[in-house]
Design a protein that fits this description.
There is one protein chain. By secondary structure, the chain is mainly alpha-helical. It has two domains: 29-186, Orthogonal Bundle (Cytochrome Bc1 Complex, Chain D, domain 2); 188-221. The chain has ten helices and four strands; from the N terminus they run ααβααβαααββααα. The chain has helices spanning 2-26, 40-53, 65-71, 76-83, 100-107, 117-120, 123-130, 158-163, 166-184, 188-220; strands at residues 60-64, 93-94, 133-135, 143-145. The strands form two sheets. It has a two-stranded antiparallel sheet with strand order 1-2. The N and C termini lie far apart (52 Å). The chain binds heme C. Residues 53-54, 56-58, 107, 109, 111-112, 114, 117, 121, 126, 129-130, 148, 151-154, 156-157, 176 line the site of heme C. Heme C (HEC) binds at residues 53-54, 56-58, 107, 109, 111-112, 114, 117, 121, 126, 129-130, 148, 151-154, 156-157, 176.
């Protein structure tokens, strides 16, 4: 019985240990991380960054263009001009023209869909990943990555990172990763404000139920 308990306990510990090891590696790459999903302007910039620098390779297969526009206060005109670079209509899902077979052939591994990436991996992982490319002449892409060793993604933000100051690059990443957090949970802001209302309701309810409790017990005595 004792052995069984020890085995169960060790299994329970494994995920927490591997998680803390993973997040420790990330620490030095996420110093400037400060994501604000309540900041609509930041999400708008993030959407612009995503469609300019990522959507050629990555899809958001569970999001529709017009849903993004509605949530982020973007007009249909701005949507067509600034975000849709394919033949898509506003009600279409955010897909691109890259076939999986081609992606596999070109990169060794097709670029994955990014709708749920911040939930599957974590916002810290994605921020750290985009912030930790380094030159490596042995790699086919000329770069390697500290967070995802031997990644087949090229450093598509190379030129931006070169031109921007550290602060500007960090803002760029906060906007872009913030947009991906929103894409992973489009109702995130509604959920948070709903939470405040529910707690408020429960507090008021508490006052009434306490008054009722007092009233009932007064009569019993
Ligand atoms: C030229 C094509 C290309 C572009 C453009 C591109 N990526 Fe990638 N990306 C890839 C490939 C290929 C992989 C798969 C890497 C691997 O697993 O080895 C990848 C992987 C990733 C991953 C890791 C996903 C995971 O599950 O581990 C993230 C996050 C990511 N990309 C984010 C972005 C973001 C954000 C942008 C825009 C700033 C972007 N990518 C632009 C090709 C691209």
């Amino acid at each position: 019985m004792k052995k069984l308990l020890i085995i169960c306990f060790s299994f329970a510990l494994i995920p927490s240990l591997s998680f803390s090891a993973g997040s420790m590696d990330l620490d030095e790459y996420i110093e400037g991380m400060n994501i604000k999903t309540s900041d609509v302007k930041s999400l708008q910039r993030g959407a612009r960054n995503f469609f300019n620098y990522c959507s050629g390779c990555h899809t958001l297969q569970y999001m529709r263009y017009n849903q993004i526009a509605e949530d982020l206060g973007i007009t249909e005109d701005q949507l067509m001009k600034n975000l849709i670079f394919t033949e898509s209509a506003p009600q279409n899902l955010v897909m691109n023209n890259m076939l999986k077979e081609d992606g596999d052939r070109w990169f060794g591994k097709a670029p994955p869909d990014l709708t749920l990436v911040t939930r599957r991996k974590s916002p810290e992982y994605v921020y750290g990943f985009l912030n930790s490319f380094y030159e490596d002449s042995k790699s086919p892409t000329g770069v390697n990555n500290h967070v995802q060793e031997a990644s087949s993604m090229p450093h598509v933000l190379w030129d931006i990172q070169e031109r921007y100051s550290e602060e500007e690059y960090s803002q760029f990443l906060n906007d872009t990763v913030g947009f991906l957090v929103y894409a992973g949970e489009p109702i995130i802001e509604k959920r948070k404000s709903m939470g405040a209302w529910v707690i408020g309701f429960l507090l008021i309810f508490l006052i009434f139920s306490y008054a009722l409790y007092k009233d009932i017990w007064r009569e019993v005595k």
